[in-house]
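Progress against Task 2.4 (sequence-to-structure conversion) is shown through the following example record, which the project officer requested during the mid-term review.
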Amino acid sequence: MSDWRVRAVRASKRPFSRSVVRPADTQPAPEHSMDPRPDQPVEPVTLARSVVDAAVYRDGRRIEAPTDLADIYRKLPDRPGTMAWIGLFRPAEAQLLEAADRFDLHELAVEDAIVAHQRPKLERYGDTLFVVLRAARYLDEAEEVDFGEIHLFVGPDFVLTVRHSQAPDLSAVRRRLEDDPELLALGPEAVLYAVLDAVVDGYAPVIAGLQHDIDEIETEVFGGDPQVSRRIYELSREVIEFQRATRPLLEIMKSLEAGFGKYGTDEELQRYLRDVADHATYAAERVDGFRQMLQNILTVNATLVSQRQNEEMKQLAEAGHAQNDEIKKISSWAAILFAPTLIGTVYGMNFETMPELKWVFGYPFAIGLMALVCTGLYLVFKKRDWL
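Structure tokens generated for the chain above:
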């Protein structure tokens, strides 16, 4: 386990105390970059730097906009219909520990939020829900999927959202709820619904982008693109990662639905959550289908590559066979022409004791012998299909 993770785990298992958070002027400065220039004064880390937005709502309407957790805690009166919603973006460990102290969060959930890189899940610690979601967005220029992570602590009168990536943009979710006070008045569960809905709705462009990529890959496969195998592999990895984000979401929705009666979830909110569950199911089924399609495409591509290799081997074999035929023809004619050359060479030697020199039929005999040998060789090669 790395040092930073060990520190996070140890810190998360200490008793939560307000003394954990140092005053602003004693906060440790962030690490310096590898800049050769002289050190410059570094701004101290303050809690407000990671608070994207924070508000106190009463009956679905914003009544306060505190700047830090202590101010929020002071302005959160103990009365029905009042709720605090704090949005944090990549908070420091000390900031999460202070939030845990203020809102009595379980140390295991805080540990997960500090370490991050969690699978989607829902866990209940007393009257507080801890939900981990994986958001996704499709990057058109790079033609790839970018995944984000968001943690939600949902209590009786507060919602704490912790983002570790740019996506999803919860400011739009907040504006949507503030424009619908009746829905926001339903309390923290309404915020949970809105975040779930935003995450699941964000899957639609990703599904469309992946479908477009798969269509392109199918065209490339049958077009014989040599780089298509690599693209299939890369897209398969993205689909598997997307599957890991969508499949556990179904269990989250089932767990929420199972607690409707026990925790008195509003009937209208139940309908909204069931609608999100339907969309999540559709997304998960599409992703499962994408994975099966890519497996089939990979199999088809392997078959087509084998066929092309067989065709190339066949063409090479045919070319070699044709080359052998030409070599046979050349060798046959060379042998036929070699026979008279050999006989003529013998008669061209200057020897006085050769009996054929003074034989009256010597010349016709030599010519006939040449013709006989050449004809014999031609018939032999012809019979063997060399000519």
